[in-house]
Each structure stands twice: as C-alpha cells, then as structure tokens.
Amino acid sequence: MPEKITTVEKISRYMDAGFPIIYYNTFEELKGMQTIIEASGARQVLEWSYTDGLILYKNGEVQNDYKNNLAKIPLANVLEQLLIEEMYNLEGKVVVFKDIHHYLEDADVISLMKGFVNKINAGDDFSIVFLSPVVKIPKELEKFITISEAEYMEYEEIRKTIVDFIEYQELPKVADKLLDELAMAFKGLTKFEINNLLALAYADDGELTRKDLNIIFEQKKQMIMKSGILEMINVKESIDDIGGLENLKEWFAKKAKVIKNINAAGKFGVAMPKGVLIAGVPGCGKSLNAKAAAALFEVPLLRMDMGRLMGKYVGESEGNLRKAIALSEAIAPCVLWIDELEKAFAGINNGGGSEVTTRLFGNFLTWMQEKESPVFVVATANNIMNLPPELMRKGRFDEIFFVGLPNRTERRKIFEIHINKRRKNDMQYIDLNKLVDLTEGYSGADIEGVVKDAIEDVFASDKDHITTDDIVKMIENTHSLSEIMKEPLEKMNKEYKERKFKNASK
Q: 48 with 54: CB under 8 angstroms?
C-alpha cells in the first residue's frame, strides 16, 4: 500500500508544478493558514482578508512592519492594485485570499483573477491560494482551479488533543481505555470542535468520565447534521428485529467478525469489506438492515442523502461527495447507509443523466473500487432496473442481495416481533398460523401496519387485549403490496433471477 501523501505535501507539489489557483477547502482558518505556510517552504506568503488587508509572512513569521491600505475595500479594487503596482511584487510569493467564496459571483473579480492566471501561465513565479470553508467555482475559472480538502485529524492527534486539554485544565488523569473511547468518539471532528466539546463535558461536572461520551455523541450528531450532507443515526434496532432474511443475517455476522477485529483480520490477509447492495420490493426491511448492521458491527451509522450533494456551482456537487466520503472515512469504522441509490443515478443507464450526475457516479464508483478504509457501505434500492450495470460489477460491493416478499416462516416471525414489541402479554390470544395463512403476498411493512392498526382499534374500543379476530379485521381492510404492485413485482422478481442475485431469505 503506497504511503499516504499529507495535505502539506500535496499543496507544496501543486505550487512547485505551477498550478495557478489552489482552492484549499477548510473550516479551520488558522490551521489552514499554518498548512499553507508550511507547504510554501521558502516562499513568502501574502495573506489578504477583508478586515485586515494584506499580511506578509517570512519564514512563517508575521512581518509587522509591512504596511498596506487594502483593508475593507472591494476585492476587485485589491486585485487591480496587486496587478499594477510594483510595491506589491508577487514574484516568488504565495498569495492567499481568505473567504473568497463571498466574491466569486463578481464579474470584475473573475476577470481580474484570470489576469493573475495569465501572468502565471506566462512564466511569473507566484501561486494563488483560495482559503475558504465553502467551495464555489465560477465556470470561467474552472480549468485553472485545483481543489484540496483539509484532512480530518488522525486518531493519535485526537488523543494528544484530549491529553493536552486534561493537562491544561489540571484534571485527574484518565484511564487509557476511556482515553481510547473518547478519541474514537471524536473521530471526524475538527480540533476546534473537540476542544469545545471537552470544555462542555468539563463544565458539566468538572471531570471527564464515561458518561461524557453521551454528551459528545449528541453534540457530534448535531455537528455532522450541520454539514447538510451526512446524518448520524441513533440506532435502536438490532439484528433480532429482522424477521427472516437468514442468508443476509448470516452474511452480516461473518462481516461483523472482520469489522470488530480489523487489525487482526488485516494481518491474516482478509480484505477490507466494502459493503452490500440490498435490492428488492419496498417495505421488506432493506433500511432496517442498514441499522441492524451498524448495531451488529458496534459502529456509528451515517446516512448519506445523495440529493443533498447537488450544488449550484461548478464542482460543488463533487466537492460535497468528497467531503461526505472524507468525513465517513475519518469516523470509520462505521456503516455508511445510502438509501434509494437508484434515484441518485437516474438516467445514467440510457445516457439521460446530467453532466453533474455522471461525474458524481464516476467519483462514487472509483471510491467504491479503490477504498481501503473500514467504511462499510449499505446501499438500498427499490428498483434494480434503474441502476447502471457498472455499479453491480465485481469489486464495487462484496455482495448483492435480493429481498422479496416474506415467506410463510418469515411472516410468522414478523408478526411475533411486532406483537411482542407492543403487546407481549397478548400473544396467548393470537393464532399466528391463521394470520400467516391470510397474509400471503404481504410485505413486512404491511404486516407491521395491520398489527399497529389493530392495537389502536382495540384501545379506542376500550378492550383489554387484542385477539386474532382484531388483527384479521385489519387484514381484511388492507390491500397487500402484491395486489397494489402486481406487475412491477413480477418484472423485478424476473430481473433478480436473471441477474442471479443472492436471495436474502433461505
């Protein structure tokens, strides 16, 4: 496995190669500037911000005697002066523009930036860096910009941040096991966010204990949600909540052993699991499986909404995908759940997908093919026929499972699960065999629905318990999925058999 290239090394190489504009996307401005200064090496760094104007760095140190009058004026005016006035000699320098995304809809700014690019392409020795938490690329500059994303903190760096906080606050030392748990809980967060959460935990009771993990989890959940791309799901379900699908459950159990013992599995030569595509009819437990897998693996569950990736600016959608992938890899080991995958890549099959959708699809495929991180992808799809065939080739997913309508044994199990969950003591009044006989062609969601409706009806009627007849009454008033979607289901079943997908049921 090739050695990982750091962000500093990557940006330094871009500068050495004469890339005109490097777009460094990060929320941590101070750390971002440190990264750029380090990547610049012997080059002087000229930083511009609206509030402070120009600041000159030599050998990483601020030159306080550097005077300028370019603060609190429009960026277009700043660029004009930088281009024409000799006092702002840019030769051999790295010019950093902070919070550039505010100005990239200004036609004058775009035109003047092209002037800088032309000077660089003509042989002038300087580099431009955009430092911003938001990626916004105008079409006119697309070909001149190279995006670099900030790296998330590694486990050891997180651990050191916690230790530094404990020492600074003069707190009692924390046991190694708890320190490891805290470090794992903080994965995917910035140093700023980690210090804030540590301060919050400390303010709660003046120490760091295992109960602070709950505080960290809840706050982390909020922070991830604010990204607008990923959602952290609080998992209450377990593998026992799935009625049937024994083949899939057994497969998950095998993968769980690998995920829980990643280091030992790697040393033994076991390949890192990539994930699973679960396709099949609606309401048959596909989404439930994603949650159950995370519970079984004992890892966080992240949900990625592919629709949220779409941005209005050039490169924004691809940037959002990169962020989502980077965040999931930073939090790993984890389960990344992508629901209704076919909707994200609609039209790719017949060439009807947009340019952006096609690029996203290509980036996603490349990541799935090459990923070595312990991010286990659980993708679900209702209609496999709308998925591009490239997605189903070997090397993308470890396995593809088909989930059909539950068989007799599975329907019985599903009834047991939902009745026991709500009215366990009423099982003595229930004839499960009769219910199973009456629900041929029903989905798991159909069965859950009739149980819930029966319980509600019984409660409204002031009865003490539910009976078989109460549930039968609801079955008689329900149209099953097989009735509503007869023709589409027949087509799907035929497609799954022809493609020889593995049946999730035994």
A: yes
